[in-house]
Amino acid sequence: MSYHFDFAAVFDYDSALLAGSAHTLLLTAVGAVAGLGIGILGAACRAWRIRPFDRIFAVYVELIRNTPFLIQLFFVYFGLPSLGVRMDEWQAAILAVIINLGAYTTEIIRAGIEATPRGQIEAAQSLAMTRAQIFRHVVLPPALAKVWPAICSQVVIVMLGTSVCSQIAAEELTFAANFIQSRNFRAFETYLIVTVIYFLLAVIVRQVLKISGQRLFGRRA
Amino acid sequence: MNQIALSAILSNLLEGALWTIGLSLTAFVLGGIAGLALLFARIARNPVPRRLAQGYIELFQGTPLLMQLFIIFFGGSMIGLEISPWAAAALGLTLFTSAYLGEIWRGCVESVPKGQWEASASLAMTHFEQMRYVILPQTLRIAIAPTVGFSVQVVKGTAVASIIGFVELSKTGSMLANATFQPFLVFGLVALGYFAICYPLSAYARILERKIHGSRAH
Question: How many domains does the structure of chain A reveal?
């Protein structure tokens, strides 16, 4: 008895694979942009000790970094409706990704900000720049440039992690895989191909982030 | 209506948490052993094992853990091996852990000054002796903090095993949420359970890191 691989049975569903990939990328992109925004805000509060937000962000970072993404997703999707906050699976998935990535980027960017040489801030102060101006023009750009590789890695990790969003029926790439294998009964081939797609997506996302980093911080990097 | 007492919820979750810890320990120990082998391959003089190890690491770091578990779970049954969710989860997480630990440790080995290699080579030590007596003891000191830090990722990774049907903390939580209609309470408690396991590890890793940086400053 031997097993006959049938990869063509997977590619019959190419439109499902394409839609799933697009949704996974969209989820990652929205999560990355909004998560980065939270990260900058959180890092600023933490590094500049803006009370009480620095404490709030500290607790938020620890809570998120020490619990699995799957449980954060379940909490948002199944738990929050008890408080009257009801959302569909996409809203829940996007919210969970933003919350998750926001915590990691807060911590990553904070490290970058704290590595800013004191002299630069003092020099900016002596030019009568306001705190906001100093942060925007002196502290943030080099801090982001310094930690950009760590941010890229985290975004890729989060993208791979979004595969568990299939568990709340958000129709991303893993959901597509589950759907396809339930139709063609070729679980192994389906998951193998989808794994390869994820690998390619990871390579693409990493490359796009690297290039945008060079565009954004070209002079510094 | 079925009213399940809080004490019943808690005792079920506690049992689930024990399975989470058991799976984490298994993956961490076996993954550590495999990671060490990977480390030796990664820094070998022969380029063949070096490239193979690099490919392995990139593969496991570039694909979702959930997909790795699915492939092991369904691939095993395809070749006629009846793999239990526990075995699939343990194997999958071990491979995942080994890829990350191998890469973390390689970074630590490379942070040992080059002069140490050259000095031990000038004493006619073999590659293995250099590693055993000169490089690894120094690497160990640097490697403890990131290794403890990574253990948090292993614990969180075990949650994904619930999807292939292994009953640990997350799966117990899902089942209890369905049975009690109290998802807010149950998933809150589940999150608290993970936090109770992971936070001490994170905090310890941070202390270790500070210690190393502190001793370097002197």
Answer: 1
CATH of the domain at A32: 1.10.3720.10
The complex scores an ipTM of: 0.91
Token match 């339930």: residue?
Answer: A182
Structure pTM?
Answer: 0.92
Q: Cα–Cα distance between B193 and B13 in angstroms, integer?
A: 8
Closest partner residue to B191 among A67, A80, A83, by Cβ? Answer: A67
Interface test with B, best of A70, A86, A178 (most B CBs within 10 A): A70
**B213 — pLDDT class (breaks 50, 70, 90):** confident
User: The domain that contains B144 carries what CATH number?
Assistant: 1.10.3720.10
DSSP B67-126: HHHHHHHHHHHHTT----HHHHHHHHHHHHHHHHHHHHHHHHHHTS-HHHHHHHHHTT--
pLDDT tens string B71-105: 999 888 777 888 899 999 999 999 999 999 999 99
B63 in contact with chain A, both atoms CB, cutoff 8 A: yes
Tell me the chain B residues in contact with residue A65 when contact means C-beta distances shorter than 8 Å: 152, 198, 202
